Amino acid sequence: MLKVLGEGDKYLESCALLLGGFDGFHLGHSALLNAAKQTGLPVGLMTISGGKAGSDIFTLAEREVIFDRAGFSFVWEIEFTKAFQNTSAEDFLHGLFEKIAAKAVFCGEDFRFGKGAYGTIELLKKLAPCPVNILPLEKVNGKKVSATEIKNYLAEGQMREVNRLLSSDFFLQGIVERGRGVGHTYGFPTLNVSYPKEKFALSEGVYGGYAETDAGRYPSVINFGARPTFGVEEKKVEAYLKGFSGDLYETTVRIFPTEFLRPIQKFSSEEELKNQLKKDIQKI
User: Could you tell me where the DSSP H helices lie in 156-243?
Assistant: First the structure.
């Protein structure tokens, strides 16, 4: 089970440690994890929230799911505060190795740390109390796999490209809220989830995908954005779960949009909307 380290917590068992921001977990990060597992030690990592321009790919709660499923033993969650931002590279490393008993460190060749990102690989090797393993950057089609590239694909709704670069499918985790109940009236009940403000927003539209719930996993038609047919401008996530019947209110669900189906559009009648939804469901 994943152990989550906060401000005053320590991990004093011998371990292998991954260094980076890890607001998402992509193919480059998977390569670090696979290398660290070769040590035979428990593997942990740090993760920073709020440090990336334009919001994070995954929330802290979502990352905990990813890290747990990937087999990490612990994660040190760091908030990108002013104090952290102004911590010198030397002080960051001293605090890090007082907190975590690392016997091996793994990072990418572009890893930087400390105030102004002045901390270098050379400084890390000099001050680390253990071997430092530097891995080359992971590339796909000659391009560096990066959070920036993943966000660009998210903004365009290119979910296949997003998931090709991530170690596991992109998803949204949230609590099912009570919606307007409109879906029930025309035979397509949906669950409603708020999209976290700190999470990078994918392109508005209708997607095919699936949902993980307490009742199981279901193919889904997922709407992200406004609902112009009903005059609702508020952006929400609504998902129709094919084959599901029941009540999921107040439970945690994970929604995975895997394929862009169409833009959001305003329908002239309920019948026109129902016909389109039938077509969307056939596609999934």
Answer: 159-165, 182-185
pLDDT digits (tens, 9 = 90+) for 99-121: 999 999 999 999 999 999 999 99
Rounded Cα distance, 154 and 169, in Å = 12
End-to-end distance of the chain based on CA atoms, in angstroms? 33
Q: Report strand pairing: 232-241 vs 191-193.
A: antiparallel
* Distance in angstroms (rounded) separating the CA atoms of residues 250 and 241: 16
Q: Considering the entire predicted model, what is its pTM?
A: 0.92
Residue appearing with tokens 């908030």: 79
Taking phi over 0 as left and psi of -120 to 50 as alpha, with beta for the rest, 183 belongs to alpha
Distance of CA 270 to the CA centre of its chain: 35
Q: Report residue 111 CA to chain centroid gap.
A: 20
What are the phi and psi torsion angles at 279 (to 5°)?
A: -65, -40
Strand partners, 102: 15
pLDDT surpassing 70 at residue 258: yes
CB atoms within 10 A of CB 275: 12
Q: Are 124 and 38 in contact (CB under 8 A)?
A: no
184 pLDDT higher than 60: no
Give 209's DSSP letter. E
Residue with tokens 């406004």: 226
